[in-house]
Amino acid sequence: MQPSPAASAPPSPAPYRFCVAPMMDLTDRHARYFLRLLSRHARLYTEMVTTGALLHGDRARFLRFDAAEHPLAIQLGGSDPAALAACAAFAEAEGYDEVNLNVGCPSDRVQSGRFGACLMAEPALVAEGVAAMIAAVRIPVTVKTRIGIDRDDSTERLYTLVDAVAAAGCRTLVVHARNAWLDGLSPKDNREIPPLRYPVVGQLKRDRPQLSIVINGGLQTIFDCRAALDTLALDGVMLGRAAYYSPWLLSEVDAALFDDASRTVDRREVVEAMIDYACARMAEGTPLAAITRHMLALYQSVPGARAWRRLLSERAPKVGTAQAQGIEVMRAALACVDPDRAAA
Fold it and tell me: Within the chain, how many helices (H) and strands (E) appear?
């Protein structure tokens, strides 16, 4: 049975074994709450938050999360060591379990701000930022990077970065097994066009066995995850859009990757928990559609899934923050896929 969503998950014996990647416009707090209902052990990451947003924007809004989301990491975007240290301290004070530095995003906007994948060319600066954060907090400071930039297929840049941040105290790196092409590809194309090179990540682990290495990029299924963990002898896997757009995959994670078969997950119970969550958030002024947009793929490949998606997509935006109407819409959607059990 699904435990109370308010109960935080216990520490995982392998904290990075399965992670859901930070994804802009996707892994907000409502998505993370939903995903936590599907897996007790998956490590969740925020969208990337820039240091400027935390230092000069609505800090409380950017840092807000529900206790049920643990284990939870915040991903920071920035390059100024003092700013990174300050923001890491904010995150620790708010209760995050990890601070992750983005050294992998290839977008033009990120490059113009001197952070993301372009920082692979400045390993000393990255190491300085990591050292500043480690000095400021007690929680783990990790780095997410690519294996290279542009069309340089050598691994020299990767090893230089890894060794620099390891010397600064970083013990865990997430490595997206593609180069980031900074010369004209969109972020979407950068997730698909540069070739995957899993053996590079496996060799990195063999060469630096003292580090925890998590692989990212191209993984789609639990089978893929097992293959990466076992064949490459890595410490963890990180899935992005495969986890978001096929969220039921997370219901297999605890048993398949953490040997925890102590509970089962039921889609209807997940929806019931999300109804309660949506009511609480609507009472705070959050529109229903901001929550239900993350649930559209829950019933993927189940009879009635198309009706479920259509009803939520069409009716949820009209509800706004009206709780009674929100409950009605979510239960009507549930009736499309689970008619025998959808009644209140």
Answer: 16, 8
Query: Choosing from 19, 105, 225, 336, which is the catalytic residue?
Result: 105
> For residue range 168-177, what is the model confidence (pLDDT) as tens digits?
999 999 999 9
Q: Classify residue 101 by its DSSP letter.
A: E
pTM for the whole thing?
A: 0.94
Phi-psi domain of 196 (left: phi exceeds 0; alpha: psi -120 through 50; beta: other): beta
Instruction: For residue 204, give Cα distances in angstroms to 79, 160, 167, 173, 197.
Output: 24, 12, 16, 11, 12
Q: List, run by run, the mean pLDDT of 10-residue segments along the chain (344 residues).
A: 45 86 97 98 97 97 97 97 98 98 82 80 97 98 96 95 98 96 82 92 98 97 97 97 98 97 94 98 98 98 97 98 97 92 53
Domains by residue range for the chain, with CATH: 18-258 (3.20.20.70), 267-337 (1.20.120.1460)
Scanning the chain, the segments in alpha helix (DSSP H) are 29-38, 51-56, 59-63, 81-94, 108-112, 123-136, 156-167, 187-190, 198-207, 222-231, 241-245, 253-258, 267-283, 288-292, 305-319, 323-337
Has 170 been annotated as catalytic?
A: no
How far apart (Å, rounded) are the C-alpha atoms in residues 344 and 331? 8
